[in-house]
């Protein structure tokens, strides 16, 4: 997911302030508003923070909501103590549900960013997925993905290296950004560096190889195309993982 430091800082601040403000706003109604309904209102606030911030902001908002719920909306008021067992259960549920929905909201925001709207790109993913699911030899999948990457990323060339991690080339990351040494280029920049770039193929935590991309200087490579490339590399990793499980030899 593209990083925006200013937005992330604002989201972290909102994670603390927004649940506090809502909890304070609900205090005049705590005599008539049930603890469960108050907790639901706070869950909505947590979702709003998570949907516009990071997973960390969502988790912090859930913790903040649970704390302010305890302090302002359960007896004895003004203390981090809960007398009624039912309110204790509600507070725990608020925390658990808040954490869960905050992570789902953050994931949904990320998935929205990677939605594929180009029909040709979607077709490429579908073709490779079908090839992997058909049980095709891993080298066939590698060859197909290599050709797809050349077209998709406007490359001068592309090679696959099986099980190698030599050197420290620039790397295409899962969020579409490029890592060069310790520097990380913002993923919304629409080009690859002029130097060779690696795109790793892995599955189930196992590294199987990498595509070595040879970019065309000055060619525009949008974020969406780079994210599709990452998906294709993942499918390659899945094919190689299946080949390993079946005892089939991968590409050399």
UniProtKB/TrEMBL annotation:
One GO MF term attached to the UniProt entry: ATP binding
Keyword DNA-binding: no
PROSITE patterns (alphabetical): TAT (PS51318)
Protein name from the UniProt record: Sensor protein KdpD transmembrane domain-containing protein
Subcellular localization(s) per the UniProt record: Membrane
InterPro entries: KdpD_sf, KdpD_TM, TAT_signal
Highest taxon of the lineage: Bacteria
Keyword terms: ATP-binding, Kinase, Membrane, Nucleotide-binding, Phosphoprotein, Transferase, Transmembrane, Transmembrane helix, Two-component regulatory system
GO CC annotation, single: membrane
Bilayer-spanning residue ranges: 80-101
Domain Sensor protein KdpD transmembrane: 13-110
GO biological process: phosphorelay signal transduction system
Membrane topology of this protein: Multi-pass membrane protein
């Amino acid at each position: 997911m593209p990083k925006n430091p200013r937005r992330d800082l604002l989201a972290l601040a909102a994670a603390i302030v927004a649940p506090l403000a809502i909890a304070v706003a609900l205090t005049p109604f705590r005599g008539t508003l049930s603890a469960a309904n108050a907790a639901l209102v706070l869950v909505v606030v947590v979702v709003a923070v998570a949907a516009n911030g990071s997973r960390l902001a969502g988790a912090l908002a859930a913790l903040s909501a649970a704390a302010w719920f305890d302090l302002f909306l359960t007896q004895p008021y003004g203390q981090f103590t809960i007398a009624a067992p039912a309110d204790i259960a509600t507070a725990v549920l608020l925390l658990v549900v808040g954490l869960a929905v905050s992570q789902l909201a953050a994931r949904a925001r990320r998935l929205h960013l990677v939605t594929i709207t180009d029909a040709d790109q979607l077709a490429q993913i579908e073709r490779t997925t079908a090839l992997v699911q058909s049980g095709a030899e891993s080298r066939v999948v590698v060859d197909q993905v290599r050709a797809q990457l050349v077209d998709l990323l406007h490359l001068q060339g592309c090679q696959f290296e099986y099980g190698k991690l030599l050197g420290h080339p620039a790397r295409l990351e899962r969020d579409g950004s490029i890592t060069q040494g310790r520097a990380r280029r913002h993923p919304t920049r629409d080009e690859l560096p002029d130097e060779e770039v690696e795109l790793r193929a892995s599955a189930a935590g196992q590294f199987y190889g990498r595509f070595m991309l040879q970019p065309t200087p000055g060619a525009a490579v949008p974020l969406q195309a780079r994210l599709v490339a990452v998906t294709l590399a993942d499918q390659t990793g899945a094919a190689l993982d299946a080949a390993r499980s079946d005892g089939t030899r991968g590409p050399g």
